[in-house]
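Record 1 of the preview.
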Amino acid sequence: MFPLSTVLFPGAGLSLHVFEPRYRQLTVDCLRGDRELGVVLIRRGSEVGGGDERVDVGTVARIETATPLADGRWRLAMVGAHRLRVREWLADDPYPLATVDDLPDDAPAPDAAAVARAEAAVRRVRALLSELGQQPALVGPLDRGDAVGGGQSALSAAWRLCGLAPVTPFDGQRLLEIDGPDERLAVLAELADATADDLARLLAGG
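->
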C-alpha cells in the first residue's frame, strides 16, 4: 500500500518520485511481482515518516514504467486500474500493508446524459481556470478519441472527468467512494459548477 496526499481514479495516471527506503523496497517487491499496489488518500498526517491516518477506499495502481535513479530512488509512472476497499490494515513492516477487497466495476454504465452534464461542467471550470492561467482548458474528445456513449467508453469518460476536475483531495475521495456512476457524475457536476461560479465572480471583479 502507498498512502498519498492525492486521490488516484481508475484510468488516471500518476507519477511518483520514490525516495523513502520503505517505499524503495515496496517498489522492488512490486516489480518482482504483478507490478500492482494500492493507493489510498492520507486523511491526516504526512506522506513521509509514517504515523498517518488513512482512508479505506482507494485504487489499485499498476506500475507502467519504473526508472531507477541514484541511491536507490525510483521514478514511477502508474495508472489506476480499479477501486479497492481495505478490510484490515496490517503492521507497516517493511512498508504499509493491508488486506483488501476489490470493489466491483460500475454497473450499469453511466447514462450518456449524466456524462454530458458533468463534461460540460468540467469543461466550463477548466476554461475559467485557463483564463486565470492556472490550468489548460479541455479541447477535443475526452477518451482517446472515443465518442462518449454507452458501455466501456462512457465509464472510462466518467472516471476521466473525475481526474480532470479541479477538486480538492477530500472531494476527490468523496467521488471515489460513491458506488453509482450517475450519482458520482451528479456530485461531480455540482462541485465543478460551484467552483466555476466562484471563478466567474472572481474574473468579473465581484
